[in-house]
Every structure is written in structure tokens, then in C-alpha cells.
Amino acid sequence: MKLFSALLVATLTLITPAHAKTPGEVDVGSALRDLPMQGLNGPSKKVSDFRGKPLIINVWASWCGPCRAEMGSLDRLAKRYGKQFTVIGISTDDYPENAKSFLQKSGTAFPMFIDDKPWPLENMLGANRLPLTVLIDADGKVLGKYYGAHEWDSRDAVETIAKVLKLKL
């Protein structure tokens, strides 16, 4: 079990990507810009509407198998720890109806938004690979970026989130 935990933590550890940044990407340690977000399963908002409480942003697409696979764990995470932080999703789907259809079928309930050309949110977050999950402090500063699918409501993932966001969960 300790070996599994060590492997999960290593997997969740930030790794400097060996690829070019997206245009306008915000680095870890920097604050997000206040961009508008078009509502997918609720009202539209701005990034700043989520300040004051830690935020977890998941960037996904309905055609992305790993994105679909981790969505249930993100939904459970949001339901269980919604008082300590907010979980939102940003779809990069070209067709909003595809994203809405997936959300209805999966029963995902946390707030979802959709990015649109020229993909300002996707670029700001650095989502040149999906899924991407970004941990942000209450002031809007990026604390961590995690590529690939994870079981976000697992004990090890929750411990990592608590450590990065400096929370007691």
C-alpha cells in the first residue's frame, strides 16, 4: 500500500512539461486573469467570481476517454468537500451540445463552463493535453497543474489536494 501511495503522489507531483506553453499560459505561482466563462449547465461567470475560496478547475472534453473516466471522482469530490473548495469544469468541446449530452448522461452536477475559439481559458490554464486539473488558492493563484486522469476522491488524491491548498480535510 505504501508503494502504491508513493506512486500516486509521484504521479500527481508537478513535472515541468517538455513541451511548448500554450499562448498566454499562466505559470504555477501566478494569478489567473479574470476571463469570462460561458455557462454550460448554469449561468455564465467570470474567473474572479470564484475568488475567496480555493478552486479546482478540470479541463476536459466529451470525446476524451480519460476525461470521462475521472468525471465521477471529481463530482464525488465536489459533493464531499464543497464547503472547503469549489470544483468547476471547463469543456473544450467544439460543440456545446456534445458536452451537455455527456453531462446529462453522467449526472455530473458541479458547475461547468465551455471554452470557445480562440480558447482563452484553455490557453491560460495550459491545457494542451487533456484532462488537466488545476489547483488554485483563494486569491486566484495557480498552485498546481496535474495532467492525466486521476481518481480525485481517493484518499491519496485528497491528501495531495489538502497539502497543496493548505487545507485540513
CATH topology tier name: Glutaredoxin
Termini separation (Å)? 21 Å
SSE ordering: HEEEHEHEHEEH
Question: Biggest sheet, in brief?
Answer: 7 strands, mixed
**At CATH's second level, what is the architecture?**
3-Layer(aba) Sandwich
* Helix fraction by DSSP (H/I, runs of at least 4): 25-40%
Shape: globular
Radius of gyration (CA) equals 15 Å
**Tally of separate helices:** 5
Going by CATH, what is the homologous superfamily? Glutaredoxin
Tell me the strand order in the biggest sheet: 2-1-5-4-3-6-7
Q: Give the overall average pLDDT.
A: 90
Low-confidence stretches: 1-11, 13-18
Number of domains: 1
Strand content is: 15-25%
Keywords: Cytochrome c-type biogenesis, Disulfide bond, Redox-active center, Signal
Signal peptide: 1-20
Main location: other
Protein name: TlpA family protein disulfide reductase
Layout of strands and helices, then pairs:
Layout: H1 2-12, E1 36-39, E2 45-46, E3 55-60, H2 65-81, E4 86-91, H3 96-106, E5 112-114, H4 120-125, E6 132-136, E7 142-147, H5 155-165
Parallel strand pairs: 3-4, 4-5
Antiparallel strand pairs: 1-2, 1-5, 3-6, 6-7
Describe the structure.
- With 169 residues, the protein is an alpha/beta fold.
- The chain has a single domain, classed as Glutaredoxin (3-Layer(aba) Sandwich), CATH 3.40.30.
- 33% of the residues lie in helices and 19% in strands.
- The chain has 5 helices and 7 strands.
- It has helices spanning 2-12, 65-81, 96-106, 120-125, 155-165, and strands at 36-39, 45-46, 55-60, 86-91, 112-114, 132-136, 142-147.
- It has a 7-stranded mixed β-sheet with strand order 2-1-5-4-3-6-7.
- β6 and β7 form a beta hairpin.
- It is globular and about 40 Å long.
- The two termini are 21 Å apart.
- InterPro entries: Redoxin (IPR013740), Thioredoxin-like_sf (IPR036249), Thioredoxin_CS (IPR017937), Thioredoxin_domain (IPR013766), Thioredoxin_ResA/DsbE_sf (IPR050553).
- Keywords: Cytochrome c-type biogenesis, Disulfide bond, Redox-active center, Signal.
- Residues 26-166 form the Thioredoxin domain.
- It is found in: Cell envelope.
